[in-house]
Write a structure and sequence with these properties.
Helix content: under 10%
Number of helices: 3
CATH architecture of the largest domain: Sandwich
Largest sheet: 6 strands, antiparallel
CATH topology of the largest domain: Immunoglobulin-like
Radius of gyration: 33 Å
CATH superfamily of the largest domain: Macroglobulin (MG2) domain
Number of domains: 3
Amino acid sequence: MKRFSAILLSMAMVFSLTLNVFAIHDHDHCGETGKPLSELLQEEVTVKEIDGFKVTEAKPIDLSGFDPDCIYEFPVQAEAPETSGESGDTLPDEPLPEFPLSVLDGATSLNPSNGRRMLRASAAPYQLATVSDVMPADGSQQVYTINVADGSIIQAELCIPENLSLDYTLYLCELNEDQTGVNVLSYSAYVTTSDFLSECAAAINNSGDTKLYVIIIDPNGNGSTTDYYTLRVSMGGEHDNFEPNDSAFSAIGFPSMTVSQSLTVPANLNSPIDSDWFQLTLPSNPDYSTLNISNIPANVIVESYIFNGLQPTKTGSTVNGNTLPVSAGANFFRVFYDPTHAFSPVSYAEMTFAPSQPLSVEKVTFLIAVNGYCQRQSNLFADRITRFLFVRGATVEVHVGYMTNDGVLVPTNDTVTVTIENPQWDNPNMRYVSNSGSVQNGSYCHVSLEVPKIRGVDAKYNFVYTTIVSQNYGTLVDYVQMALLDKYDNGELSKPCRHNGACGLL
């Protein structure tokens, strides 16, 4: 009676599952107390930190405890991912130039002096200087200096003239130890393209004292005296652990990602010119061709790039959708503040980069629950033919999962129809019940229906027949004979059984 009471209680608690995750645990038999299906139908996920990134991995489904009759494999070859046809290059590691101390002759200070206030304070913990100018007539470099307090980050952004014949380079430098010259700390030297990607550089002052930094704009011998550039320099005390990564030349490498993994970046944009770059390197035959970006703050934009030498090609932007393309080789991602919004510091620590899933379903598997219990194979039949047990009027839940051969869940579109039929019923209108469920871009489909409350002949059980058909993947259960009981009795429920999924209550 204890087990039967639990069944009655479960009937009041049955609810329609809408889970899009699917996992099966191994049990030898259905005992007096089973693990709840609400727990078993949870995808196992692990979260770990790799190089400062939070990496989430969904483990492939373990089907070792699943009845083989309920696993259907198809001879489907995985579709090759669509790629751009181009491979991204890593940026060349070129030797940095050395500048003599004389480069400071005539340099413009960005710190307040002599009544001029180039560097302006703001309500946020940063100060911002903006300079708009042209190059000298002789085409020489423009040089600026700025004193930065200990512990502060300095970020420089050069908005280059929109002239494809010009090619400016931005250097952020410091005096060398003996103060006889200027050493480059960070630089940006993109080849000018129609995107007119800003050149950015950054450094953090960890010297223990206020320090002089030097910003050099080099026109590479071809400066314009009519086309204006804009230099913006931010100095502030707040920065995340990935800084300085303000250009592709200082991009932080993503951990390698498989189709079952995703990652988040616990980082922030702390000034209007903060621009964070990351790099993902893929093998020659990648398993996926896009990254899906989710939880993007409303004032944040992510762009994707590949490089041919120093020439950047923008391949996508979240302004046009949350999916960015990737290809073999080096892929670069720029995270920056949407310039159409008024700036305020923002965290994008919940923004998730997730590879697209494989495109082919290679395996379909299902489980059935009756009144919340797993659909159990019966040992009542002397002929040992595989049959399952139904109860009159019970709620039947059918759960169908879609995955690759190695157990990775695959989003798909499908409709599943379940029919329970007994040709011996007298009333032709009550010979069967049927219901369907659909899934759109999901990896799990659910169908619920109720066994009719029809009295049969005077016997402990009658037979009904169950059919489960997938619109896309064919017949999963073909008119399989079931035992229709008046009720589960204690003796039947306490017997060991081979089951087709999991034991327990919903």
